[in-house]
Sequence to fold (450 residues):
Amino acid sequence: MNYLKKIKTEGISLRFVYKGLLVLAVIVSAFLLYATYHSSATYKKLSHATDDYIELQKAAYELMDASDYLTENVQRFTVAGNMKFLNAYFTEAFETQRREEAIEIMARNENSTEALAMLQKAMDESISLMDREYYAMKLVIEAKGYEDYPEILRSVELSPADKALSSTEKMDLAQTMVLDDVYYDQKDLIRHDMRESLEQLENKTHSAQIKTDAELESELQLVRILIILQTVGIMVMIWLTSKLGINPVLRAVENIREDSPIPVVGAIEFRYLARTYNKMYEVYKNSIAHLNYKASHDELTQAYNRSGYELIVSTIDLQSTYLLLFDADNFKKINDTYGHDTGDRVLKRIIEVLRRNFRSDDYICRIGGDEIVVLMVHMEQEQRKLLEFKVVQINEELAEAGNGIPPISVSVGVVHGKNAENADELLKKADQMLYETKKRGKKGVTFYEG
Fold:
């Protein structure tokens, strides 16, 4: 009970919360990685089984395609008597050899024993059918009187009765031998054995898929549980971060914009920052409230004077501030040419132009002569393009003469507070950058590159 009261009073440390959630995230991630690794391995087993089936199925179909290709060419040869069909037949049979390659592919797979046996049977029947096809082709060769034909057909001897047939009768007999029911019955046997082979493959693959599917499902279930745990952890982290850090920061930003103290809520670390800021805010407000307007402002331009500048830099956060040091180009020449009254009007015009081009939150200070400082508060680095644009716009406005005020330009040196240890160093570096601008021909801006 006392512990809960202490948490309510002092808050929870973001460091402690993040360490705890980080440890939890590492543990869950490790288990998730382990589970996904095993799921991946199981999936690969399933994938390999499917790939094997596809490869072996393709091999079985290749054998049938090759057998049909041989049939097609022998039939076309017996009908047309064109030697290109004979040559295509023997190219497939003895060079391409898709049937033999299909048997070799299936023989390499140790899980296809039964399927291989049926495919080999289909192969044997296909080879047996070739004897009938050879005889038919020899009949055509005899009928056409071809003399140049494959050597293997020279060993085929026609029966005396067939040899005595006329050319037309030999062609008719050859066509009958590769087109009759006997021929197609043997082709059906080849197809039957191939279907048996495919059925064996399908059964083997289906069994492997069922087994690996069950393994994969159980592993994916574990992954789902771990993902849910990780998601819950992330949601808890987001909620705690919002409650302890983000929401207090957003409220603090609104309070700063409204120029009021920050509520001391949220994590221990933020409460410490809020209390520190509130102390600084109180000092700042008290200082500003007691600062005499005349003592802090320049009588000519109504900008802050050197005293006002010193007070401001002692109260603002220099680490989020840009300091821009302006100097009127050829100001002495203007005084010498037009007189000091015109010089004073030029200074007032410069201040007016600066007020139009900077925010109301920014501080414009005339710290001496024609040296003017602009403090841009609550500005992070990487605002170079914005500031370059502002300087160009300011110089364009100042270039317009009127009301007895000659055209004028300003040179600028810019430094961000993160590049200096204190206000004096910040101003010194800005002066160095202003000098670089003057050296390069005036009317421009130089940034300090930390």
Notes: The chain has 15 helices and five strands. The beta strands are 322-328, 363-368, 371-376, 410-416, 445-447. The CA atoms of residues 436 and 446 lie 7 Å apart. The longest strand covers residues 322-328.
